[in-house]
Amino acid sequence: MPRVLVTRRLPDGGADPLASIADLELVGPKSDDSPYSHDELVAMAPQCDAIVALLTDPIDATVIEAGSAGALRVVANVAVGYNNIDVTAAAAHGVVVCNTPGVLDETTADTAFLLILAAARLAHEAETDLRAGRWAGWGINQYLGIDVHGATLGIVGYGRIGRAVARRAAGFGMGVLHHARTPSGEPGFVADLDELLAEADIVTLHTPLSPQTTHLIDARRLALMKPTSVLVNTARGPVVDEAALAAALHAGTIFAAGLDVYEREPEVHPELLRAPRTVLLPHIGSGSTATRRRMAELATSAVATVLHGGTPPNLVHP
Ligand code: DGY
Q1: What is the pLDDT of residue 93?
Q2: Same fold, 3-103+289-307 and 105-280
Q3: How confident is the prediction for the chain on average, in pLDDT?
Q4: 189-219 pLDDT, tens per residue?
Q5: Atom 7 of ligand 1: nearest residue by CA position
Q6: Which class does domain 105-280 fall in?
Q7: At residue 318, does pLDDT exceed 90?
Q8: Are the C-beta atoms of residues 273 and 52 closer than 8 Å to each other?
Q9: For 3-103+289-307, CATH number?
Q10: What is the pTM of this model?
Q11: 81 CA distance to ligand 1 middle (Å)
């Protein structure tokens, strides 16, 4: 009898593809929908053929090794990012890993644009003052931001989400530069990240997290950005050195920042919480009802495909 561990409650309909598995035994989520600890995952993995995980579940080498010594054949992450899974250990132990590419691009690009607009136009500071009763009426010098229309947008990481942001930028009449590990061969490609950072008015990050992209935006690179520039991160928190970013915002060496992701979620660096001209969202990049359902469906259909003996299209290759 195939056993599938679903670590957390999925959006309505998100687990429907699992219904195609005969005699399925579903394990989890916990009745209070709290996360499984690492020890619990290690203990349960060998008894399950599949795990449907969230990006908050640590599926490291210990979980993979324990699982592969038992029944575990597939881990499907309900996220496009999979830095919570040790994909190298999974490949070494013959455990298939899947993610959810494609279905969240537009929603995440919407969130990036939300942060671009909100940070550039100081929406958070203005609204906070209004709600606190500190707004005494229209003022010609109040809450002056930078224009998004006509600005130069620097996109770091030019995959599906980066491109979806570029399409939105075209509608705002922005100039678009992009940087990626491999040349895109498209207009606007900048091989040297430092050069892109120095030229862009607004920089938005769309790289996966890897050892190469950890602290990609550090103090040295922040110092290359214009004092009037805006940094937006909807990728993964550790791509930015948060302490260095907070210092740049406090010192005014960049103008503003919009963040959806953090180095140690759910903790947010205390200096970022205190930083001026900063919009902070709680990792809601893909957070629309329709998209979260599509993500869950894609992950659970991958599990169904593997347990039926097939190969899902959304395999992660280490
Ligand atoms: C992902 O899928 O990696 C996103 O961070 C979830 O919003």
Answers
A1: 98
A2: yes
A3: 98
A4: 999 999 999 999 999 999 999 999 999 999 9
A5: 286
A6: alpha beta
A7: no
A8: no
A9: 3.40.50.720
A10: 0.96
A11: 6
